[in-house]
Each structure stands twice: as structure tokens, then as C-alpha cells.
């Protein structure tokens, strides 16, 4: 099991998290992870309507911003939200974004 | 008093709001407005360390995303947060972002 590079909790930057969440596809991935817990990238990206390489770019953006943890195990990559880290760093932020995304799905998620 | 174009409350998109907030300078402008209420662009942009044209671009981004209202009165432009509209559309979001920005100022605001 290989852990890819991630920012430490105290190095997670608010603007980077907001930027990572400011995309309909990434927001949908985060919403799925909030329900499912851990998923493989393959499952998380299912039916997103984006190419595999685009999905990989989104996972990387989310990981580098500190929103998700990615662990590689053989050919599979498992991802999950860094919910505790985000709640520690920015209390209430993830919940309010997830509630907002649920109440008013972005254009890409509605399509 | 001239009101520049703004999205209607129901047309404010979560991803656009997150994108508008995902910048240290714009986050600082929003934090100032949250304290001051209404400000002229000149006052809001004071000491931000960006050129006037860059500040104008930031105000426009915030306005088009539905984060602020801009009103032109002669040579002055007054701006304020659309706090009620944002709270209606995405409950808790603005407060959690402002708290997070206050607790962990972005790199630009620390400089």
C-alpha cells in the first residue's frame, strides 16, 4: 500500500481547498465520498462523464489541496475524504459545502 | 446610482461562489466587507498590494459570482456582501469560510 504525497493537516490552505471544490465534477466526487467513505478511483469516477485522465487530474487536485487521501494498492487507487483534517482546520466548511451541493446541484451534476 | 449586472439569487451557483472565494485577495476583500458593511472599492482595495486594475477584476469576479453587490454613484463604486442571498442559497457557507479565513489567514493576507 503506497501513500501518495499529501499536505500535512496544518499546511492545508483554505484557498486551495476552495479552489479544489470549485468544480462541478470534483464536487460530485467529494459528495460521493462523503456518502461511501472509501472508494476506488474507478468507482468514484463512474458515470461522471469525463475521461479517465481527466478524472485522474481531478483526484490529484483534490489530493494536493488536502481534500482527499489517495492510497495505491497494486493497480487500484483508494480515495477517501480527509474529513477530520478539514473539520479541524476549517470547522463547518465541508459540511456547508456538501449541504449546498446537495440542495443545489451544480450544472454538471444536473446534466 | 447605477446598479451593475448581478445574478439573481436563484442563479447564484455554488461552484462560482467557491471559485470567487478561492483567492487570497478576494477572500481578504470579502473579510473586510463582512466587518465594514458597505465600502467604496477604493477603501476595500486599500493596502491589498495589487494594482487598481487587478482589484477591479477581483470586484467583477465577486459580483458576477453573486458574492457582492456593486453600485456606481458618480465616480465612486460602493460594494457590499450579498450575505442574505448567500445565506439563503447556501446556509452556513459564508460564515464557515469567513471563520476559516480569520483562523488561518491565506498567504497573501499574512504577507
Describe the structure concisely:
Chains A, B: It holds the Pfam family HTH_20. The structure is a homodimer of 111-residue chains. Chain A has 111 residues and is an alpha+beta fold.
What is the CATH third-level topology name of chain A?
Arc Repressor Mutant, subunit A
Q: How many helical stretches of chain A?
A: 7
Q: What is the highest CATH level, the class of chain A? A: Mainly Alpha
**Strand arrangement across the biggest beta sheet of chain A:** 1-3-4-2
**Quaternary status:** homodimer
InterPro entries (chains A, B): ArsR-like_HTH, HTH_ArsR_DNA-bd_dom, HTH_MetalResp_TranReg, WH-like_DNA-bd_sf, WH_DNA-bd_sf
Keywords (chains A, B): DNA-binding, Transcription, Transcription regulation
Domain HTH arsR-type (chains A, B): 6-101
Pfam families (chains A, B): HTH_20
